[in-house]
Design brief:
Distance between the termini: 32 Å
Radius of gyration: 21 Å
Order of helices and strands: HEEEHHHEHEHEHEHEEEHHHEEHEEEH
Largest sheet: 7 strands, mixed
Strand content: 15-25%
CATH class of the largest domain: Alpha Beta
Number of domains: 2
CATH superfamily of the largest domain: Type I PLP-dependent aspartate aminotransferase-like (Major domain)
């Protein structure tokens, strides 16, 4: 009854924007979480790719706690040392020269939209403001990020959306090149579409996008909110495909559960932002920046990333073996530790069956089971997770 009480209390006072699962979580450690009744769950969702280092990571927690006792907030009118140190690390490990900090993926995608339009206006004058986005994409829930999201189910009730966005199919270079003729200033895409169903780019697609952008004078913006920070076994997913963007957005795992987003850009592009053009009250606050600096130091370690690739290969191989035994599984696809199992039927009941058996996953696009375990997951935990998955699929689709 304890869980039911909490859920009833929440449903009386919290806006109903989430279809929450009937679970009240109170504790986490590594790849496991516990509910208020003491039941343990293996977490293969990691807060939607946020807790890449697992729950309650001791180094991140200790660093944030120490900073809490020293300095919490100053506003960005002043410099703080954690902000500077984090920005230096992000620049050192990426293509970028400069960083803007905010609090979420949607916020930094909003910032990217503004930056691209401001840059194009200064470079080319009026008339080049359209941003080409991909169908089936997801960039956030704020109005600008929503307008850039290529899934009309998220638009319902919020029209009119912001003008200036053109949508083309993912993996369609011909459609992309045609769209560049209509006053475009940038191409915005996820290297792997996560919310869209773990859709990977075709060989040569991202390189082709880069070539088109170079030929047409467009900026290439990669949304690495879900795929960045080690999720694919590289620090950033675009590294797998041999391309360098002009702008990149990060969030989710950056502070391993604390709210932070980062907008990265080359020097040439970043110069379009000057004092007064963009801001974020809480961006890179000392506590969050300290946590992020600590997390990033671990996530960017080459040995850590190599281990993610190894575990990702193991998970993919085991999932493929499982899929061959189950006709309901149409396809298994993924990279590193982001995987999707596309089913021939709706997958919501499988999510429920997994939860009942002690495994947390989710379902996107109605029929794609998504797996986003913490990057510290062990081989034994992968085995256990897939055992629960197999049992759940067998129970739902006997």
């Amino acid at each position: 009854m304890l869980s039911q009480n909490w859920m009833e209390r929440a449903d009386k006072v919290v806006m109903q924007t989430y279809g929450r699962q009937p679970l009240v979580l109170v504790k986490g450690e590594g790849c496991r979480v516990w509910d208020d009744a003491g039941k343990e769950y293996l977490d293969f969702l990691a807060g939607l790719a946020v807790c890449n280092l697992g729950h309650a990571h001791p180094e991140v927690a200790a660093a944030a706690a120490a900073q809490m006792r020293q300095l919490v907030h100053t506003s960005n009118i002043y410099y703080t040392t954690p902000m500077v140190e984090l920005a230096e690390e992000l620049v050192r490990h990426s293509f970028a020269d400069r960083v803007f900090f905010a609090n979420s993926g949607a916020e930094v995608n909003e910032g990217a939209i503004k930056l691209c339009r401001k840059y194009a206006r200064e470079r080319y004058g009026p008339g080049r403001h359209n941003i080409i986005s991909m169908r089936n994409s997801f960039h956030g829930r704020t109005l600008g990020a929503l307008s850039a999201t290529g899934q009309d189910k998220f638009w319902q009730g919020f029209e009119p959306l912001l003008p200036g966005f053109i949508f083309v199919p993912f993996n369609d270079l011909a459609a992309l090149e045609k769209a560049t003729e209509v006053g475009a200033c940038a191409v915005l895409l996820e290297p792997i579409q996560g919310e869209g169903g773990v859709c990977l780019p075709d060989p040569g697609f991202l390189a082709g996008v880069r070539q088109i952008c170079d030929k047409k004078g467009l900026l290439l913006v990669v949304d690495e909110v879900q795929t960045g920070l080690g999720r694919t076994g590289r620090l950033f997913a675009h590294e797998h495909y041999g391309v360098k963007p002009d702008v990149m957005t990060l969030a989710k795992a950056l502070a391993n559960g604390l709210p932070m987003g980062a907008l990265l850009a080359t020097e040439q592009v970043a110069q379009a932002f000057v004092p007064g053009t963009h801001a974020s009250t809480f961006g890179a606050g000392p506590v969050i920046a300290t946590a992020a600096k600590t997390a990033f130091g671990i996530l960017s370690n080459p040995d850590f990333l190599a281990a993610v690739r190894e575990k990702g290969d193991y998970l993919g191989q085991k999932a493929a073996v499982l899929a061959k035994k189950l006709p309901v599984v149409k396809e298994v696809r993924g990279l590193g530790l982001i995987w999707g199992l596309e089913l021939t039927q709706e997958g919501g009941a499988v999510v429920n069956a997994c939860r009942e058996r002690g495994l947390l996953i989710n379902c996107t696009q109605g029929n794609i089971l998504r797996f986003l375990p913490p990057l510290v997951v062990s081989q034994e935990e992968i085995d256990r997770g897939l055992e629960i998955l197999a049992a759940s699929l067998g129970a739902v689709f006997p």
